[in-house]
Input
Amino acid sequence: MKSVWLNKFKDSLLSILPITLIVIVLGVSLVPLSGQTMLNFCISCVLLVVGIALFTMGADNAMLPIGQHMGGHLSKKNKPWLSILFCFVLGVVITVAEPDLSVLADQVSSVNSWVFILTVSVGVGLFLVLGLLRIIFKWRFNIVIAISYILIFVVAVFLNAGIVPVSFDSGSVTTGPISVPFIMAFGIGLASSRASNSKEDSFGLIGFASAGPILVVMLLLGILNVHDASAVISPDLNFFQALPIYLKDVAIILLPIAVLFIIFQIFALKLPKKEIWRIIVGLVYTYIGIVIFLVGVNVGFLPVGKLIGEGIAANHAGLLIPICAGIGFCMAMVEPAVQVLASQIENITNGTVKKFTMLICIAVGVAIALGLCAVRILTHISILWILIPAYLMVVVLSFVAPKLFVGIAYDSGGVATGAIATTFALPMMLGACSTLGGSIMLDAFGTLAFCAVAPILVVLVFGVIYKLAEKKAKAKDENLEGLKRIDIIEYD
Output
């Protein structure tokens, strides 16, 4: 147990260290920060190390087992309607409570925040059902997801340009640090009891959960004839102000999951007491860890992100692209949901795809994403000029890469847009955009959408390279086998 704790804290520390060093260097050189701001940031980094370690420990012992037990049980019942109903309710309940979604809902004018939140939640529920139907009827993931995004872009063409970035960002804030491990484990549980290839079907639900809200929010804003949205950066909080807020928010998020598990345990699962206690302790770890994490990122990271964006744009605009890319790489390594997904990929593939490899792929994707965001701020290019070619490449590669990597890729895009992206990357882009006099809605929003698509593209490219390397290795082994079968004739 002690060694597990030490490994969790070691991994957490190594993840936090790069972004900490980058911000400190920037804070004493290019963008001088006040002593209080730097102190808050350093305290937040310590909180993140502790929070991520506790959260990943809790995810391993509670969130993942709960999801797998529920998914596996529903799959064995052979009652598709029950699985569909539960999947829809699950998507709505988990999404409604996401703190990042509430923050985004406040940015959209002309739409009641609760209407926006419920619309996004229904989008997640509907597309989780679509993901479930794909597993049940053995539809090909790449075809179903490609059709979904084609439909999204067809609708986007007919919408006002000011609401397209917000619509894409709405799909990115739905996959938070709690919903990701639970949805992912639920999918693994469903797939494991099916006759289909469970490795391939274990991934992809997070990708569907990210796509659904984009389409549904577009339809909502189009029907309501919304033309624009306001942009408000949340007021700065100190640690003591933030703590009660996130104690409540995280409790609201975890409570429905705990209630669902209790219902399943009483009427269906009947797990032994040892497993129950393990899950209870895991839920406590998860709760404490994510509260500490959210307090840290919202108090220390949000204001620093805004100040860095403003400072670089005002005095060093030429360095905006490389600095954003470097921060993006380090930022992805810190996201708790990215850590959980990478670990699950290594477990499901029996070590064939290493955790560190997936972390690097996702981090490279986010680096490219924030670099492109900086380009958009500097050039004012339309978001569609980047997203449409990016998703076209994604669709093409989805038919070339190994099937296993397709679901992994879309899930990677979902996990890359967590709390760090919302509280650091987005404020940084908002600060840079406002300083350079650009349109916040057209040039800054859409940052999360870029952080979602770029990792998909990078992981698919890695999948193609992996496939080619595997073929080359197989051909080499066949040649060696052929040489071994050659009879050697010796002459006197």
